[in-house]
Automatic annotation (TrEMBL):
UniProt protein name: Polymerase/histidinol phosphatase N-terminal domain-containing protein
Top-level taxon in the UniProt lineage: Bacteria
Domain Polymerase/histidinol phosphatase N-terminal: 10-75
Alphabetized Gene3D superfamilies for the sequence: 1.10.150.650, Metal-dependent hydrolases (3.20.20.140)
Pfam families hit by this protein: PHP
Chain intervals for the UniProt region annotation (Disordered): 1-21
InterPro entries: PHP_dom, PHP_domain, Pol/His_phosphatase_N, Pol/histidinol_Pase-like
GO molecular function: 5'-3' DNA exonuclease activity; 5'-3' RNA exonuclease activity
């Protein structure tokens, strides 16, 4: 017998074309409806641009829509992602952080292009900007160009060889400090969720230290499941969420149809009765 299902099928971590996803906000919501998701958040990287289109489309389906954004931050020099959920459209503290991150992102892209040139590659900045259009310009755009130009076999190789955190050197830690981002948002009534905690280069000891800081500085939850997370990792994260008094969130981190397991609304099953589900605080 599968564990009793939650009262709804949720997905609280997804991407559209407004950052590095493949589907427009409208297409993404249509797919979520098709997948029978009933509670959905769009969480593009460092932008709120897709929210109103997604919200409008969600209203045309039986779909509850939650505002979201995935913010780039850093802790002890390690880039970390934090998902903010359930904020109002006009939250100026959040808007200020998003704006700051967008300008860092653009500046970083220029410097990434320069770094690639130093390694003998063409200057991809203009093409990457064109490719991104009005979307948030990021490493996936550079990766796509490197693949299209036959300079690497696939996006994974592009990250391995050129774009991964290890390759970025000083460009790795350009983001605002986690403490400052949490400080600015902690009293704003939104959920502040540490995204995919097992995807960082941290031992469990260090992860515990991070969660201690995260909780002390006003973080409210962690993703206990992200896409096809290993079940033993989900068990560990469930246990850490309880230990640190952090709510449990979950999402697919869907960017597009990139693998057989990747689907909106799909993530490794969580033991719902053992955690404090963030969405059960919402009505
Ligand atoms: P950025 O936001 O510009 O730092 O780019 C980070 C994004 O790149 C992540 O959100 C992923 O969508 C994508 N990414 C990270 N690592 C890889 C990888 N190894 N292969 C493909 N895409 C990746
Ligand atoms: Mn991404
Ligand atoms: Mn992320
Ligand atoms: Mn994401």
């Amino acid at each position: 017998m599968p564990e009793a299902a939650s009262y709804r099928k949720v997905d609280l971590h997804t991407h559209s074309t407004r950052s590095d996803g493949k589907l427009s906000p409208t297409q993404l919501i249509d797919l979520a409806a098709e997948q029978k998701v009933s509670l959905f958040a769009l969480t593009d990287h460092d932008t709120l641009d897709g929210l109103s289109e997604a919200r409008q489309r969600a209203a045309e389906h039986e779909l509850s829509f939650i505002n979201g954004v995935e913010l780039s931050t850093q802790w002890n020099g390690i880039p970390l992602h934090m998902v903010a959920l359930n904020f109002s459209d006009d939250n100026s503290a959040l808007q200020a952080i998003v704006k700051q991150n967008q300008s860092i992102r653009l500046d970083r892209a220029r410097r990434i292009a320069d770094l690639l040139v130093k390694q003998g590659l063409p200057d991809l900045f203009d093409e990457a900007s064109t490719l991104a259009g009005e979307s948030q310009l990021g490493r996936p755009h550079f990766a796509q160009l490197l693949v299209e130009k036959g300079l690497v076999k696939d996006a994974n190789k592009a990250f391995d060889r050129y774009l991964g955190n290890k390759r970025l050197g000083k460009l790795r830690d350009v983001w605002p400090e986690l403490e400052d981002v949490l400080g600015a948002l902690a009293e704003q009534g939104m959920e502040l969720i540490l995204a995919h905690p097992k995807r960082y280069p941290l031992t469990v000891t260090k992860l515990r230290r991070l969660l201690g800081d995260f909780s002390k500085w006003g973080g409210t939850g962690i993703e206990v499941a992200s896409g096809n997370e290993r079940p033993d990792h989900v068990r560990l994260l469930e246990s850490l969420s309880t230990t640190f008094g952090l709510k449990a969130s979950a999402g697919s981190d869907y960017h597009g149809p990139f693998g057989p397991w990747m689907q909106v609304g799909k993530f490794t099953q969580i033991h719902e009765s053992q955690v404090d589900l963030v969405w059960q605080h919402w009505h």
